[in-house]
Specification:
Elements: H1 3-45
Region (Disordered): 32-56
Transmembrane segments: 6-24
Biased composition (Basic and acidic residues): 35-56
Length: 56
């Protein structure tokens, strides 16, 4: 194998790893945003002062 072929293979592998990492981070960010939005919606539904006082 010539040096050019090795260089090309190495560049493809590095680019593939960087691309895989970027996709993983974007997916993780999307999951985190959905989780935060669901938590915020839950807090909004149970906002202070919107429930009757406890009977106990």
């Amino acid at each position: 194998m010539s040096g050019d072929q090795v260089f090309l293979i190495e560049m493809v592998l590095v680019f593939g790893l960087v691309l895989a990492w970027a996709v993983w981070e974007l997916t993780s960010l999307r999951r985190s945003r959905k989780r935060d939005q669901a938590l915020e919606a839950e807090r909004a539904r149970h906002a202070e002062g919107q429930h009757r006082p406890d009977q106990g």
